[in-house]
Amino acid sequence: FLLNLSILDLGTISITVPKVMANSLSDNRSIFYAGCAAQVFLFFFLLGAEYALLTVMAYDHYVAICQPLHYGTLLGSRACVHMAAAAWGTGFLYAVLHMANTFSIPLCHGNTVEQFFCEIPQILKLSCSDAYLREVGLLILSCFLGFGCFVFIVLSYVQIFRAVLRIPSEQGRHKAFSTCLPHLAVVSLLVSTGIFSYLKPPSISSPSLDLVVAVLYSVVPPVFKTQVDKDLWNQV
Ligand SMILES: *[C@@H]1O[C@H](CO)[C@@H](O)[C@H](O)[C@H]1NC(C)=O
Fold it and tell me: For ligand 1, is residue 74 a contact (CB within 6 Å)?
C-alpha cells in the first residue's frame, strides 16, 4: 500500500509542477488542448486512486489495530491486492467521467485558463452552453462521495485512537500518534481545500484566492505526504 501511495504522490506532483516550472522559465505559457485534457485526466486518476487507497488503508489500519484476530480472514494478501486494484480502477473510472464530460462541452469564451494547471472550474468558465451543468452535477456528486469517504476515514481513526490510548507504554502511544496524526492532517487539508475549490459559489472567486486554494489541494498534500510516507517506511 505504501509503495502504491508513494507512486501516486510522485505522479500527482509531476503533473502540475514541471509544467509550472517550464512556464516560469519561458515566456510561453500555452498548453495544447490535448495536454490540458491529459492533465485533467491524470490529475483526477491519480488523486481519485490515492483517495480511494487512503480510505482502504484506514479500514486496513482499523482492522489491524482494533480487530487484530480477524485480520487474517478479513484482509489476507489476496484481499489487499483486490482492494489496491479496486482503488486504481475507481480512480480511472472517475477520471474518464470527468475528462469526457468536461472536454465534450463547447468552449467559446476564449482559451485562457486562469490557473497554473488545467482545473475543471476554470475550464467550465469558458463554456457557453448548458452542457456544463452535467459536469457541475458530477462535481457535486464527487464532493459528497469524497466527504463520505472522509467521514469513514475519521471514524476509523477515532476507533484507532481510542485503542491506542489504552496502550500502557508511553513510547508505543507516541509512535502510533506520530504516524497517524500527520496522515490525518494531510487528508483533512486535501478534502477541505478540494471541496472548497470545487463547490464554492463563483461570487467569492478571485484569481489570487483560487491560486492559493489550488496550491493547497494539488501541490502541498502530495509533497508533504511523500515525507509522511517516507517516515512510515522507516518505521516499517
Ligand atoms: C499496490 O499494492 C498491492 C497490494 O498490497 C500490491 O500487491 C502491489 O504490488 C502494489 N503495486 C505497486 C505498483 O506498488
Answer: no
Q: Is the CB–ligand 1 distance for residue 4 below 6 Å?
A: yes
* pLDDT tens digits along 24-36: 888 777 788 888 8
Under CATH, domain 2-235 is a member of which superfamily? Rhodopsin 7-helix transmembrane proteins (1.20.1070.10)
Per residue in 44-95, pLDDT (tens digit) is: 999 899 889 989 988 888 888 888 888 888 888 888 899 999 999 999 999 9
Percentage, residues of the chain above pLDDT 90: 15
Residue of 3, 9, 50, 59 to mutate, ligand 1, most atoms within 8 A of C-beta: 3
Atom number in ligand 1 closest to CA 4: 14
Cα 15 to middle of ligand 1, angstroms: 21
Distances (CA, A) of 42 to 39, 79, 142: 5, 26, 16
pTM of this structure: 0.85
**pLDDT exceeds 80 at position 227:** no
Q: Domain coordinates of the chain in residue numbers?
A: 2-235
Q: Which helix (H) or strand (E) holds 11?
A: helix 2-25
Instruction: Please spell the DSSP secondary structure of 27-42, one letter per residue.
Output: S-----HHHHHHHHHH
CA of 201 to the centre of ligand 1 (A): 39
Of ligand 1's listed atoms, the one at least distance from the Cα of 1 is: 2
DSSP string, 112-129: ---SSS--HHHHHTTB-S
